[in-house]
Amino acid sequence: MRVLVLGADGYLGWPTALHLSHRGHAVGAVDSFVRRQYDYELGVSSLVPIGQLHRRIKVWEEISGLSIDPFVGDLNDPGFVFDTLRTFRPDAIVHFAEQRSAPYSMIDRAHAVYTQVNNVVGNLNLLFAMAEIDRNIHLVKLGTMGEYGTPNIDIEEGFIEITHRGRTDTLPFPKQPGSYYHLSKVHDSNNIMFACRIWGLRSTDLNQGVVYGQETDETLLHPELATRFDYDGVFGTVLNRFCVQAVAGHPLTVYGAGGQTRGMLNIRDTLACVELALENPAAEGEYRVFNQFTESFSIRELAEKVADAFSGKVEIATVPNPRVEKEEHYYRAAHTKLLDLGLIPHLLDRTTIASMLAVAERYRDRIDLGTIAPSADWRDPSVRGQKASSLP
Amino acid sequence: MRVLVLGADGYLGWPTALHLSHRGHAVGAVDSFVRRQYDYELGVSSLVPIGQLHRRIKVWEEISGLSIDPFVGDLNDPGFVFDTLRTFRPDAIVHFAEQRSAPYSMIDRAHAVYTQVNNVVGNLNLLFAMAEIDRNIHLVKLGTMGEYGTPNIDIEEGFIEITHRGRTDTLPFPKQPGSYYHLSKVHDSNNIMFACRIWGLRSTDLNQGVVYGQETDETLLHPELATRFDYDGVFGTVLNRFCVQAVAGHPLTVYGAGGQTRGMLNIRDTLACVELALENPAAEGEYRVFNQFTESFSIRELAEKVADAFSGKVEIATVPNPRVEKEEHYYRAAHTKLLDLGLIPHLLDRTTIASMLAVAERYRDRIDLGTIAPSADWRDPSVRGQKASSLP
User: Which residue, of A156, A342, B18, B349, is most buried by count of CB atoms within 10 Å of its CB?
Assistant: First the structure.
């Protein structure tokens, strides 16, 4: 299968590109490198050093004998999007190429507007290019479990059957996203659903949970194949951040009460889920949603798991919650569709956390604890806005 | 009350500004005049000639002794938005300032992207300006009944109580919008709901039906106070278009089966509803939705009503539907909240249609039938795209 991976220089895009290449697919790797610009803007870095995309592709070719086609450009440039689809002629597109940090979108007005325009317009350009060039392409789009928020009912996979005043319909599951970033993903989902309806496009929206881990079968083949490991307050995801804090002898910082519960998954399962979606494409005109996570944990539970797995001493500290969110709430979300397709999850055990701690240990001299504190306040867009540098 | 009317040069914005001024409010009139650019782009015109905003404001002042403050600028310019709020210091904002045509948004990729960016970014800039300058401002935002689509259950006003697997929650009503324009309004609604939640803003989202009519108590006071009357295939709403077709001796063009049913309201009721929302503001942190229409009709029924009210002979013709929509469907939508606040509707009777026909008759020499045919095809974004001129 010819698969175009958008955002192929990123945390998940790169290991996905490698994995799909390894599995025999012809892979095109699209990136604008704006993710690396965010690092310069914020003064943060991946804990694990990463090479340039072209260099990583070369190393992969040397090791595996398999080639990956790079395409350098921005999805917000429609000429680039149309040209890339016409040149590469994909059977499927895996779309990771969006600004993916909730805190980044909450820094100030400029970052909120940037996030929504960047994500929504890039995705619209893609939909129009598919409609014009090849309506048979299967779009596998990365959404987020955060689109749903924390309703007081069970979360279903994208749609819910509602009976109301004696009539019944299956309708899009109501969304209550919790940041301008999460909102951008809801906007995308609505746009894609519509494009499938009017143009007969095929799409799978992967509402992904919080991903943890840094190593995959392919990235482990060579140090220069490593993917990013973010632990800063803006781009770091919670479990990665806790592991770095533990190794650095810093208390694990839980936002507020810590009862916030989220779906989580191992980075290896991200790859497996994307592959399952590709192998079992959506039908013509079908917009379907898979909830892509394997287990749910509260933030407090995660901190306790890390403290338990860490060989040394570690404290758990509560910091004021920069987010506006429920800190204790009901949470149960369906996630059977990928299991039905054959997903065998890597569950979060001590061994997994130990391997993450080992990564943090290996690069402990690169840890900059000053970047871990939250730098965006959901309640006050003006505070940090005054200090923010310009957008990339 | 100090009320800033955004989009005050438009079809509904202008009569709203006049009406609120007449009712004793201090009115600021904000517009970028981009709506007039769309006319140049498409080669269409309001059937009723309209003066420049500054001229209309002068005429109003001469007649009423009341002044309206003009602010010329674009909501997509954050400096303009922040400055205008700081200068005018509104108690409330009525936000009509969006690209409001579904067919315009469906012309091609550029028009879809333009519509979503223009509407979403303008609205985001406004929300951030309110959050920073005055969180007590009441935002009355124009949404559309088209956000809901045509579900097979009763449509409620913004929210629905759902019982699912033994648990109950009140959640945002699921949306199934039918164009990139309608999607932009859904994006706005989601952004506003979030801003109310995190910043305690007050907002009323008016999910308005299709508006008909051209005359209001204030616009009738002088010919130079007239508002637009659009009948072209892109900006004309259905009843206005039928009246012009009848007067021009052209068959009334019904798209497809004509069973498409929509909520409708008289332009005078738009003014009354906005005023009721202003007089009864949303509470701190409240995001509420009013369904703003008074009656529902199918397109076929509307054509028959116009044929019936017209003195001459008129044919009803079916043309291929350029839209992707259900042409026969269940439709029942709640609209009691504005009635509860005291709305007394102007219902659609023969007299109303006769007065619209009289407007069309008065300006029959300005009718250009060539502009009535649909010029955007929901199924094929590339057809008309090749011919489209650049965006304003």
Answer: B18
